[in-house]
Structures are given as C-alpha cells and as structure tokens.
Amino acid sequence: MSPNALxxxxxxxxxxxxLSRFIARYLDPASTEDTLQNLYLKASSVPGDPPILEPRxxxxxxxxxxxxxxxxxxxxERRAMAEYASDLADASNDGEAQALDQAQLREISQTILALxxxxxxxxxxxxxxxxxxxxxxxxxxxxxSVVGKYVxxxxxxxxxxxxxxxx
Length: 167
Known about the structure:
The protein is mostly helical. The chain has eight helices and no strands.
C-alpha cells in the first residue's frame, strides 16, 4: 500500500464521524455508510506518486465526489423505474399478450439472477440504470474493459437463453 493510501486511511479512520456528517448532508444514512465503505476502498488504492500535500482536503474532495456519484446513480435509477412504471401503464390490456410478456419477463429476470454477481451487477447498472462503462468501472473498482466484457457476456447469455427457450 502506498504512503498516500496509508495516510488517507489513517485520516479516514480518525475523522470517520466528521466524514459521516459531511456525507450525510447529501445522502440518506444507508447511502452514507455505503459511501464511507467505498471511500475506504478507493483510498486504499491511491497511488504513492505524486505525494498528496493536503490529505484532509483530498479525502473530503473524494467523499464529496463519491456522494455526487451516488446521487446521480440514485436519480438515474429513479428515472429508470419511473419509465418502467410508465411503460407498464401504457401496455395494452390484451390478457394473452400480457401473460406472454410477463412469462418472458420472468424468464429474463431468472436468467439475469443466475448470472455471476459481478457480471449481473455490471449488466444491470449499464442496461437498466444507464450508467456508462466508465461510471461502472469507477463505482466497482474494476477496469472499463472488464465492465464491457461483463456486459457483453451477460447480453450473450441472456440471448442464448432466449433462443433456447423458443426452440
């Protein structure tokens, strides 16, 4: 672990209460805790070069940006859910077509739930919540190319399952 990372983690531990209050200005309590945990993971991976001259300011700036990212992700999720609810309300009332659509939706949902956890998370964040590969990579602490591979893998598995269930 780099000297910068050690300094940031020590500072985070010392100022956890103050950081929690700072983040709570922007987020609800559960999201505040999640953000603090993500902040710890991010701080532990900070490189050692160049040295951080103001670790406290750096840590609070990281916390602020993590809170903003969480706010944006939550807003995106709310928009996606509202669109989904709107689409359901606009759907035709044809009982047979609706039953077939619901059965297909259940199959797709089961396929998504059967995906490996990180593949599933990348797919849902990308396809349902509209986050970019870059945003997902930053959020999960993995590379952008891995996110792209996971999303593609999930889409292919779902597509294969759909073909198999139609045959």
